[in-house]
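Ticket #135: bound-state structure for flavin-adenine dinucleotide.
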Amino acid sequence: MEKSAYKIHIIGAGISGLIAAQILENHGYHPTIIDASATVGGRVKSDIVNGYTLDHGFQVLLTSYPAAKKYLNYEALDLQKLLPGATLFKNGKAQTIGDPLRNLSLLFPTLLSKVGTLSDKVKILKLNTLLKKRK
Ligand SMILES: Cc1cc2nc3c(=O)[nH]c(=O)nc-3n(C[C@H](O)[C@H](O)[C@H](O)COP(=O)(O)OP(=O)(O)OC[C@H]3O[C@@H](n4cnc5c(N)ncnc54)[C@H](O)[C@@H]3O)c2cc1C
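RESOLUTION: The complex was predicted; output attached.
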């Protein structure tokens, strides 16, 4: 039977379904993607509400993921680089935490932040140092 004669249905037009379809197309098949929603992308989606961008899922792409490197076109995605870390808002107050080894200005905010104990922070530092040595 000709590859194009196979009836293949992919349920879900999220990133998994889209990449599965791309791989099948590259091998000569013609899959049909079915999705319950009206848009493609699944959880790779944002809504703008009152000027705020609300993400459904995906916000941060780890560019070293082997599968992401293989299937995504980083240049076309026009990615913006972020330093690892986060600004957390609680009870109207903001706290910024991050990796002081990459951005020294994060040292004191991270050490003084109430996110995690000092012991947690020392463990993360040790793990960080260990993983960097393995590269
Ligand atoms: C809050 C949140 C934050 C996240 N942040 C990140 C992040 O920063 N970085 C990261 O790498 N990952 C993140 N993820 C994970 C990432 O969003 C998912 O791993 C990825 O989007 C999953 O893609 P998918 O195609 O497998 O599934 P989905 O994106 O969920 O797509 C599934 C699709 O299938 C459709 N569907 C489901 N059931 C049916 C059905 N019965 N019939 C028809 N259609 C159906 C849905 O409508 C949807 O379009 C986050 C997830 C969440 C929830």
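RESOLUTION NOTES: Residues 11-17, 34-37, 42-44, 57-61 surround flavin-adenine dinucleotide (CB under 6 Å).
TICKET STATUS: resolved
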